[in-house]
Design a protein that fits this description.
Blueprint (H helix, E strand, L loop, with lengths): L1 E8 L6 H9 L7 H6 L6 E7 L2 E7 L7 H8 L4 E7 L6 H12 L4 E7 L6 H15 L9 E3 L8 H14 L10 E10 L3 E7 L4 E3 L3 E5 L3 E10 L2 E2 L2 E3 L3 E7 L11 E4 L5 E11 L7 E2 L3 E6 L2 E9 L5 E2 L4 E13 L5 E6 L5 E9 L10 H11 L4 H11 L5 E2 H8 L3 H14 L2 E4 L2 E4 H21 L6 E2 H8 L5 H13 L3 E4 L2 E4 L8 H17 L6 H7 L7 H13 L3 E5 L2 E4 H17 L5 E3 H8 L3 H13 L3 E4 L2 E4 L4
Parallel strand pairs: 1-3, 1-4, 4-5, 5-6
Antiparallel strand pairs: 2-3, 7-8, 7-15, 8-14, 9-13, 10-11, 10-15, 11-12, 11-14, 16-21, 16-23, 17-20, 18-19, 18-22, 19-21, 22-23, 24-26, 25-26, 27-29, 28-29, 30-31, 32-34, 33-34
Helix pairs in contact: 7-8, 8-10, 11-13, 14-16, 18-19
Bound molecules: guanosine-5'-diphosphate and magnesium ion (MG).
């Protein structure tokens, strides 16, 4: 059995609700106030089974004051029944509802001329002509126009037959999107708790499913499901669905919220969009104007910023814009929406979400932003994927970001990601996707940064990894840094050694003068043996002038890095040969004192030929180097590893 959502649309009192009742036997006007006043205020629902087709009717109010309610129902329909009363013909809300359905991207439907019992044949012909004129050039051009009377029942059978035929030609809903149900009603049922209803626009819902309420991000569990007033184990995309939820109180739910697959979608308040302004709109869409933004079953206020050319989009034109909303909504790429003016509330435009997680574009970034939005307006999914990755700039995107932006299932995401990689415009590193342009920018930036560093610090081996990361990759996922360095290493351009990164061609460059000074310093320490000079003494001996002092320290640092000198303690250095000698002596001493291998301070002083001033720092140095280990007031000489 296939399912289909049919939405009514049309001016007030044109017989929409009467038509739904005549077709289904159910009065869609369910509220006491609706019954008393004889008008539809809120959405109404009714079902009809035709052979193997199950139709869910969404009946909307025609009164202009209730357009907001109409919009909450119009977003999810497969097929439009545009209702025109034969005795009145096309009226303002006939046009407005029809405009809305067009802007929402409804693709199928028919025209139903009601109240045929009230007029003669000539009048019917006139109304049909009027209807044809109205729909010319739209998705309803050439669609069936049927004449009925809900009072006499005339034409209803033909209408059912036509609905059945059209139902077969409506393409099934795509399986490419995760579960999403915009909520149009929430109420509590005694003994059951919270129940929400809506059109399941994508995915499936099963009993026991863990879902998420958005934008509040509350986790809920599905206790039970109803489709067409019957309990079912599973609801599918395209069905009017009632869901009994556990884990939430009805007071936390309202129309406009979305029930969605857990952890996939995210709320947003800034969206980049394409806007089409109605040809007959009474006003233009202008930057900074306040608008009513309708998406799914939600309405929030927001402000427009036109991103294309002059700061307005005129009636009949389209353009790129950014909307900053006053409350969070759920939106994914490709979602349609309606814009109404703030006051008086009139439908002025509609559009499609391009980037649901937009950033504020600075004036100098506008050209690039527009280029990315044009890519997002395309058809091809790998191109869209690339565009989203480019929009994330230097930060990079994870698949979870793209899942939130597109609503795609993992299967689609993975397939599209690998296609995008194959096309070469995106690079993946450790699960983070980066535009090739950003990746190239990073490799250039790293090389430039290292080059500068080497120039500044010719005597340093390289740059601290962490410093480089903070300087160049502050706004990126850590994986981006790792990926860029790895690539540069593979290409032989940089060498990374523990904490230090350097250009591969970099070697510590010493001038003749530096070399000579470095040699002098080394020789002084070698000659001093265990009687290590203080730093000052060493500098004086090496004839280092006050002006050379800083450079001499760097050379000393280099001698330490090259392991020609060893830092015994603070500023006490010894030549490595001297230290190695002592180590040999210690090991020889140990083998003469097997099995305990112990040496005390006096014995060490004698062995090394040093005073206490050097003995203690030396022993502590050997402890750190794991040559010896403290054992009470003695030292255990460890076996060489
Ligand atoms: N004579 C006649 N009256 C109708 C027909 N359909 C609806 N009506 C009447 O028109 C009025 C408005 O109908 P309703 O279905 O509430 O209009 P809606 O506002 O479009 O939902 C009611 O009084 C209906 O009884 C019809 O086919 N023939
Ligand atoms: Mg009605």
């Amino acid at each position: 059995m296939s399912s289909l959502i049919v939405g009514t649309a049309g001016h007030i009192d044109h017989g929409k609700s009467a038509l739904v009742r005549a077709l289904t036997g159910t009065d869609p006007d369910r509220l006491p106030e609706e019954k008393r006043r004889g008008i539809t205020i809120d959405l109404g629902f009714a079902d009809l089974e035709l052979d193997d087709l199950r139709i869910g009717f969404v009946d909307v109010p025609g009164h202009e004051r209730f357009i907001k309610n109409m919009l909450a129902g119009a977003h999810g329909i497969d097929l439009l029944a545009l209702v025109i009363a034969a005795d009145e013909g096309v009226m303002p809300q006939t046009r407005e509802h029809f405009d809305i359905c067009r802007l929402l991207g409804v693709r199928n439907g028919l025209v139903v001329i009601t109240k045929s019992d009230l007029v003669d044949e000539d009048m019917l012909v006139l109304v049909e002509d009027e209807a044809r004129e109205l729909v010319a050039g739209s998705f309803l051009e050439g669609a069936p126009i049927l004449t009925v009377s809900s009072r006499t029942g005339g034409g209803l059978d033909q209408l059912k037959t036509r609905l059945g035929e059209l139902g077969k030609s409506v393409p099934p809903r795509s399986h490419d999107f995760v579960t999403r149900l915009p909520i149009d009603r929430a109420f509590s049922m005694k003994g059951f708790g919270a129940v929400v209803t809506g059109t399941l626009i994508s995915g499936k819902i099963k009993e026991g499913d863990e879902l998420e309420l958005l934008p509040s991000q509350v986790n809920v569990r599905v206790r039970g499901l109803q489709v067409h007033n019957k309990s079912v184990p599973e609801a599918r995309a395209g069905q009017r669905t009632a869901v009994n939820l556990a884990g939430v109180d009805t007071s936390q739910i309202e129309r406009g919220m979305v029930l969605a697959a857990a952890g996939r979608l995210r709320p947003t308040q800034v969206v980049d969009v394409w806007i089409d302004v109605l040809p007959g709109a009474s006003r233009v869409v202008r930057s900074r104007s306040r608008v009513r933004f309708h998406i799914g079953a939600a309405e929030v206020l927001g402000r427009v910023r036109v991103l294309d050319g002059p700061s307005q989009i005129a009636a009949g034109n389209g353009g790129l814009a950014q909307l900053r909303l006053e409350a969070p909504v759920v939106a994914v790429h490709g979602d349609r929406f309606i814009l109404r003016s703030y006051s008086p509330a009139e439908t002025i435009a509609g559009g499609v979400i391009l980037d649901p997680f937009a950033i504020r574009h600075r004036a100098r970034d506008l050209a690039r932003a527009r280029e990315i939005l044009r890519l997002l307006s395309g058809e091809e999914r790998a191109g869209k994927f690339t565009a989203f990755v480019r929009a994330s700039s230097d930060r990079g995107s994870q698949l979870a970001d793209l899942a939130g932006a597109t609503g795609w299932t993992n299967e689609v995401l993975n397939a599209v990601a690998s296609e995008a990689r194959k096309q070469g415009a995106v690079i993946e590193t450790g699960g983070v996707y980066l535009a090739r342009e950003s990746f190239d920018h990073f490799t250039d930036a790293v090389l430039a940064e290292l080059e500068q560093h080497h120039k500044r610090e010719p005597l340093a081996r390289g740059m601290l990894r962490e410093t480089l990361r903070e300087k160049v990759f502050a706004r990126s996922f850590p994986e981006v840094f790792a990926g860029v360095i790895a690539k540069l290493e593979t290409d032989g351009k940089v060498v990374s050694d523990k904490d230090i990164v350097r250009l591969s061609e970099h070697s510590v460059g010493l001038s003749e003068q530096d070399l000579a000074l470095s040699k002098r310093i080394e020789e002084i320490y070698l000659a001093a043996g265990v009687e290590a000079p203080s730093l000052d003494e060493a500098m004086t001996k090496a004839n280092v002038s006050a002006a050379q002092r800083a450079q001499a320290r760097k050379l000393l640092q280099l001698l330490l890095e090259e392991k020609k000198l060893a830092r015994i303690q603070g500023e006490m250095f010894m030549h490595s040969n001297v230290v190695a000698d002592l180590k040999t002596k210690l090991h020889a001493y140990a083998s003469q004192h097997e099995p305990d291998r112990l040496i005390d301070v006096p014995a060490f002083k004698e062995l090394a030929g040093v005073s206490r001033k050097y003995a203690i720092p030396l022993l502590e140095y050997f402890d750190r180097e794991q040559v010896t280990r403290r054992a009470g007031d003695k030292r255990l000489i460890l076996k060489p590893r």
